[in-house]
Amino acid sequence: MQLHGVPGPFSTARLDALPLDAAHADEMAAVLFDPALHAYTGGAPEGADALRGRYERQSAGSPDPAELWCNWVLRVRADGCLAGYVQATVRDGRAEVAWVVGTRWQGRGYAREAAAGLVRHLLARQSVRTVVAHIHPDHAASAAVAAAAGLTATDEWEDGEVRWRRDAAQERASGANHPA
After folding, report:
1. Is the pLDDT of residue 2 over 60?
2. Is the pLDDT of residue 11 over 90?
3. What does the DSSP 8-state code read for residue 7?
4. Alpha carbon 131 to its chain's center
5. Chain-wide mean pLDDT for the chain?
6. pLDDT reading at 4 higher than 80
7. Residue among 166, 164, 103, 162 nearest 136 (CA)
8. Angle 110-123/140-148 helices, nearest 10 degrees?
9. Measuring CA to CA, which residue among 99, 96, 81, 91 is closest to residue 156?
10. Which of 7, 125, 133 is nearest to 60 (CA)?
11. How far is the first Cα of the chain from the last one, in angstroms, to the nearest whole number?
């Protein structure tokens, strides 16, 4: 998954997930410019310079050696454009994941494809046993993405968001087989 602090790339049917690099900041600033993308998570769009600084920090990795920061931008293979990102913070066998697809690329199934690909990529590594995401209770689109990636809503909450979970060990024990 990670070599010398840099997450390895992975691909889905239509997307290439490329390790985040500060060089992606200019294009990603345009992808993430819509304030509507922050309706459920808070914050506001960042300009290219601010993103570049954030990407440099994220690409350097966590200051805690027990925690991995894995960040990828999503390139649509058909046109070569960046369309969003996926990320995972991995610690003690648990990966906390998130995804964002720019407004222009929404409604095409890219978020579902990217999130499912991310979960597959993470669970293929023996070190990740559980994948979690935190989703605002009113964000139906993100809940549908989580479900498509094989996560299930729990009755647990964190910071006003519902915790969704997929546990590989429970799946193996029950014989469940998720498509993601």
Report:
1. no
2. yes
3. E
4. 11
5. 92
6. no
7. 162
8. 40
9. 96
10. 7
11. 17
C-alpha 34/C-alpha 55 separation (Å) is 19
In this structure, are strands 161-167 and 152-158 parallel, antiparallel, or unpaired? Answer: antiparallel
DSSP 47-98: -HHHHHHHHHHHHH--SSTTEEEEEEEEEETTT--EEEEEEEEEETTEEEEE
DSSP per residue over 15-61, as a string?
EEEEE--GGGHHHHHHHT--GGGGTTT------HHHHHHHHHHHHH-
pLDDT tens digits, 61-96: 999 999 999 999 999 999 999 999 999 999 999 999
Other CB atoms closer than 10 Å to residue 129's CB: what's the count? 19
pLDDT of 177 higher than 90: no
Question: And the tokens for 155?
Answer: 């009755």
In our burial notation (b when 16+ CB lie closer than 10 A, e otherwise), range 74-102 reads bbbeeeeebbbbbbbbbeeebbbbbbbbb
